[in-house]
From TrEMBL:
Keyword Transmembrane assigned: no
Key words, A-Z: ATP-binding, Ligase, Nucleotide-binding
Record-level GO BP terms: modified amino acid biosynthetic process
Protein name: Putative glutamate--cysteine ligase 2
EC number: 6.3.2.2
Species the sequence originates in: Amycolatopsis endophytica
Leading EC class: ligase
Role noted for this protein: ATP-dependent carboxylate-amine ligase which exhibits weak glutamate--cysteine ligase activity.
NCBIfam families, sorted: gshA_cyan_rel, PRK13517.1-1
Signal sequence interval, chain numbering: none
Length: 381
């Protein structure tokens, strides 16, 4: 969950014949979804029944509970190619949708609900209970859903070094993903209200620069000792080394409106990692960032997504969001060529330019009524 790392990196275990994690080669995706009442469009607490149904998933894929009973999460197995990843995402979404239908719910791909049910809070034990007790009203109705991308990196030292190189690109990944304009029936005016909700947690946002993995671990321990985090497997940074898998985890994006948009996030994230690995091998230093400018860039991306101006985190100036996206694609072009993904990225970006962001599509659907809204939120391709 990109919003509040309740559990760190629950990527599905490797399936039969899956490769081990390899630096910048393997990847996988976790997707968090909302459960809705098809009659009203409001969130519906049916997660326990759907999880108990144990729907059939592809080899290596898994299904998990989330913080609130109105949410569920799927995770792919370990993948090496965009086509393999897309196939698993399609099959995961279909299996989950079929199971939800049996229990009177529909599965929605939205970063926040358009309408919330009467109550999404329940008494919980274990780690979820610890989170409820620590963050209190901040998580009582916290139904934010994200798309997490894991990219294979075998050791934490390399993961932290790569993370330093990727910090400037996180706002553009968020801008491409915005899919949460509503909050309790209100249009917030933001493309990603999920990102705004997430920003309220201690230490949220673009991670700081860390000279090595020891400094990274020390900072996490410090936040735990300050009472800001439940334990050392939690952080609110939008990029972090997984404590459960040999991966670097991107937690910046809203859950994707469509499978292809999730694939776009995964392919760009992997390309960023591959480019950073190449820069490390060449001795290229990571760019310097102002923490305040980086926060402004993330805020601008959450507000307008791809439909307005963003902020260049390094040059500290406003630029059209699509110009920033184009710069990202140019930056990772050699990595996209290595994996054969350049044409795919061009096609998917052109589709986004034509159709608009998930947030724009949600707003359009709301004005057309509940059937149009549900059709938009449950579209899988």
């Amino acid at each position: 969950m990109p919003r509040i790392a309740i559990r760190h990196g629950r990527l599905g275990d490797p399936g039969p014949g899956d490769p081990p994690a390899s630096a910048g080669l393997t990847f996988g995706v976790e997707e968090e979804f909302l459960l809705l009442d098809p009659a009203t469009g409001a969130t519906l607490p049916r997660a326990a029944a759907i999880l108990a149904a144990d729907p059939p998933l592809p080899p290596g894929a898994t299904l998990h509970r989330e913080l609130r009973a109105t949410q569920v999460e799927t995770a792919t197995g370990v993948c090496t190619g965009a086509r393999q990843l897309r196939d698993q995402l399609v099959r995961n979404r279909k299996a989950l949708a079929d199971a939800a239908r049996w229990h009177g719910a529909v599965v929605a791909s939205a970063g926040t609900p358009v309408l919330s049910g009467p109550s999404t809070s329940e008494n919980q034990g274990g780690r979820f209970g610890d989170i409820d007790r620590l963050y209190r009203g901040m998580v009582t109705d916290y139904e934010a859903c994200g798309c997490h991308v894991h990219v294979g990196i075998p050791d934490v030292e390399t993961a932290v070094a790569v993370m330093n190189h990727l910090r400037p690109w996180l706002p553009s990944l968020l801008a491409l993903s915005v899919n949460s304009p509503f909050d309790h029936g209100r249009d917030t005016g933001y493309g990603s209200w999920r990102a705004v909700q997430q920003s309220r947690f201690p230490g949220a946002g673009i991670p700081p620069y860390f000279p090595d993995s020891g400094a990274y671990r020390a900072e996490v321990r410090r936040l735990v000792e300050c009472g800001a985090l439940v334990d050392e497997s939690m952080s609110f940074w939008l990029l972090r080394p997984s404590t459960s898998f040999p991966t670097l985890e991107f937690r910046v994006a809203d859950v994707a409106s469509t499978v292809d948009e999730a694939v776009l996030q995964a392919v760009l994230s992997r390309a960023l990692v591959r480019r950073a690995l190449a820069e490390l091998a060449e001795g290229v230093a990571p760019p310097e960032l102002s923490g305040q400018v980086a926060a402004a860039a993330l805020w601008a991306a959450a507000r307008d997504g791809i439909d307005g101006d963003g902020v260049h985190p390094v040059r500290a100036r406003r630029l059209p969001a699509w110009q920033l996206v184009d710069e990202l694609v140019t930056h990772v072009a050699p990595a996209l060529d290595d994996t054969g993904d350049r044409d795919l990225v061009a096609i998917l970006l052109e589709r986004l330019r034509r159709d608009g962001s998930g947030a724009r599509r949600q707003r359009k659907a709301v004005t057309a009524g509940l059937p149009a809204l549900l059709a938009t939120l449950t579209h899988r391709a």
